[in-house]
Specification:
The protein is α+β, with helices and mostly antiparallel strands. It contains three helices and five strands; from the N terminus they run ααββαβββ. The N terminus is likely disordered. This is Cache domain-containing protein.
């Protein structure tokens, strides 16, 4: 019985380790935001929403990296993983510590143009709250896009 538990534990740790190696980096997150900006500059708001939402393309899906697009009021306009939250206002949503992370993302994008915002969010690999940072960029005076990574990367 102990041997079975040890084997199961070893398997689980191996799976976690393999998954952790498959995480995107901060440089890759910034590059994806810059790519989103290029789509926006070439085709505008609707083109970027379509590109982010296109589940048949890997352009905006790389391991655990994907963009999210909001308007300055906090309405989520697009989500690279096709989230059911698209179309909802996220302005008053808090992380597990009560931090208004969408407000912070809007503030950084609209007041600084771009930057990193730290908060805690459920890690899709472990299912537990984890430190996360999102690189966010203002597309114009109404729209922003961001890509997040888990802080241990």
């Amino acid at each position: 019985m102990i041997r079975m538990i040890a084997l199961a534990a070893a398997f689980c740790w191996a799976q976690i380790g393999m998954a952790a190696e498959d995480r995107g980096s901060s440089d890759e997150a910034v590059a994806m935001v810059v790519d989103a900006l290029s789509v926006f500059e070439e085709g505008g708001r609707d083109a970027l929403i379509a590109a982010i939402s296109d589940q048949s393309s890997d352009r905006f899906r790389d391991r655990d990296l994907f963009p999210i697009m909001w308007n300055r009021d906090g309405v989520m306009l697009a989500h690279g993983r096709n989230s059911p939250a698209v179309g909802t206002n996220r302005y008053d949503v808090t992380d597990v510590n009560g931090f208004y992370h969408t407000r912070a993302l809007i503030d950084v994008a609209m007041n600084e143009g771009a930057g990193w915002v730290p908060y805690r969010f459920e890690d899709p690999i472990s299912g537990q709250p984890a430190d996360k940072v999102t690189y966010v960029l203002a597309l114009d005076d109404q729209l922003l896009v961001g890509v997040g990574i888990y802080a241990d990367q």
